[in-house]
Amino acid sequence: MSDLVGVVGTLVGTVLGAGAAFGAQIHKDRRDRRVGMDNLARESCARFMSETADLFEQIRGIVEGAPGVGDRSALIAALRGINGARGQVALENVRISSSMAVVECSQDLWKHLRSKSVPQGSVSPERFREWKGEYWDLRKSLINQVRLDLGVRGRLGQEESD
Fold this sequence. Notes:
Shape: rod-shaped
Order of helices and strands: HHHHH
Number of domains: 1
Radius of gyration: 26 Å
Structural class: mainly alpha
């Protein structure tokens, strides 16, 4: 009888140990998958931010390099000649890997850079100033949403509090 109790005890211990190890492995796999998705989303957003910054600099260079806008058709042609393919691919990666809130912020920023008045050739100094201000607001909004999704405390432009 004591041998049977020992065997049953060993079996119960083995089953409990295996169950605990299996549960721990499932927990680790879920955590690793979540961390991997967070890293993918962070990398996708960083690439998109880089591409939009490059696009912004190209637009700014063209507009600021054309004071007085003597030949409007040449200015419009230069603005429309900016290749946005890399930025579009970066946006698609954000759409695949990020939350809908981040996707919406990204799409707003992309639309601003590709189809608002300044990229289409309307470059009065006042309109350009407004366009730049809106660009920075949209960019900050995207960064804050990415930070929120990734669990980073605080918002860009605000002091963090405990």
